[in-house]
Design goal:
Shape: globular
Number of domains: 1
Oligomer: single chain
Order of helices and strands: HHHH
Largest sheet: none
Distance between the termini: 8 Å
Number of helices: 4
Structural class: mainly alpha
Number of strands: 0
Length: 112
């Protein structure tokens, strides 16, 4: 695969990761409860996901648990984002997110 295609897929992967954080934040802002609780969840949910991703699942992660665990962590974070979109009544967005994330993962694997 050309370097341009690989770079494009890496850029798309970053966009998928950022979209996952946004989806988790939107979910946090829409759960029932007090306004303070919603604000906290809107901030802390994506922060927790980003921390887990950075420590265990990113390419330069300081803790390496093996490729199987890394893929599982990525699947849990991205799957949680899709579930969050369904929970805020955006199932089409969730489906689109899952399709793009899966196709991007396949393209990245094929390019390596």
């Amino acid at each position: 695969m050309s370097d341009l295609v690989v770079a494009g897929n890496l850029a798309l992967r970053f966009a998928v990761e950022m979209a996952a954080l946004v989806a988790l934040g939107v979910w946090g802002a829409h759960v029932s409860g007090s306004q303070r609780a919603r604000r906290m969840l809107a901030v802390l949910t994506p922060a927790a996901a980003a921390t887990v991703w950075a420590v265990f699942a990113s390419p330069g992660a300081p803790v390496s648990l093996g490729p199987g665990v890394t893929i599982a962590i990525q699947a849990v974070v991205l799957g949680s984002a899709a579930a969050a979109l369904v929970a805020v009544r955006r199932p089409r967005w969730a489906l689109s997110f899952v399709v793009v994330a899966c196709l991007n993962a396949l393209m990245l694997e094929a390019g390596q």
